[in-house]
Amino acid sequence: MIDTTADLLNLTLIASTLRLSTPLILAALGGLYAERSGVINIALEGMMLAGAFSAAATTALTGNPWIGLLAAILSGILVGLIHAAATVTWRADQVVTGTAINLLFLGVPALLSGALFDSTGATPQLTRDQVLPDLKIVDPGGSQTLVSIFNQKPIVYLAFILVALTGYVLARTRFGLRIRAVGENPEAADTAGLVVARIRYTAVLISGALAALGGAYLSIGQNSLFTRNMTAGRGFIALAALIFGKWSPTGTLLACLLFGLAEALSIRMQGTVNIPNQFIQMIPYVLTMVVLAGFIRRSSPPRALGIAYIKE
User: Fold this and answer.
1) 74: burial class by Cβ within 10 Å (0-12, 13-18, 19+)?
2) What does the pLDDT look like over 216-274, one tens digit per residue?
3) Can you tell me the distance from the alpha carbon of 80 to that of 178, in angstroms, rounded to the nearest whole number?
């Protein structure tokens, strides 16, 4: 049994860290697939916004969060298709294309929300039955403190399962080997008979689906509506976690948990310390800058990352 207030607060902090890390984990895993194939995915923020809006809007119209979740995944695949077409087929600059997608989805959700719900600021508030339910695990000891860790949305558990699955796919499967091959040496992969463009398209589409799933968690899991720019830079934090984690699933997971812990601590500190809330809210973003400044030179990205492949 856990009785002390300190233990309860620690468990609550762990539970909060898991919840806040989930959208980062999903977006970072999406970025991992794209970048291991050689395509820089700066567009994670835009993909998350697309997924968040699609999930909230579809759920508001249908009343079913699972349909909203499916709509989010489809929207992420569509945005991924745009990114892949621009960078793989037309060989546009990958950073510029990703930035353009991010800017596009700062405005498109507001436009569609105004057309559908007569409000450009937010989608309608969802009822308790319209958001994703908790997957409750009862503590056999009768203590309600441990339940706070395991009483999470299904997507939280799915995120951790996908980390293990991604590690297995990249290390143990033919598909993962092909992704790594085109990300390291597309010329050699082409010579071996692999279709580089097809593999990169597939990886970017998976990237879009996972990032959009992270966005959907924000709007119909962690919250109950979509608001403008509700991702608040999480796509960029996920990208930083991917770099910090050296493009490996386990390292990326640990980096996302670190950023999630920083956000959980910043939320807990508000109103409890004699520091303006604006400075406390900066903690995750300052941590991102420190990580990028200190570790980006020590990381070794895939050798063909950001280089468009032109078949001779």
Assistant:
1) middle
2) 999 999 999 999 999 999 999 999 999 999 999 999 999 999 999 999 988 888 767 77
3) 19
Number of helices followed by number of strands (H, E) in the chain: 13, 0
Give me the residue label for tokens 């087929």. 89
85 Cβ neighbours under 8 A, 6+ residues apart? none
> Taking the CB of residue 125, how many other CB atoms lie within 10 A of it?
11
Residue 88 token pair: 């793989």
Q: Domain locations in the chain?
A: 5-234
Cα distances (angstroms) measured from residue 83 to each of 57, 119, 129, 152, 265: 23, 28, 35, 32, 35
Residue 222: how many other CB atoms lie within 10 Å: 19
pLDDT digits (tens, 9 = 90+) for 144-189: 556 667 788 999 999 999 999 999 999 999 999 999 999 999 999 9
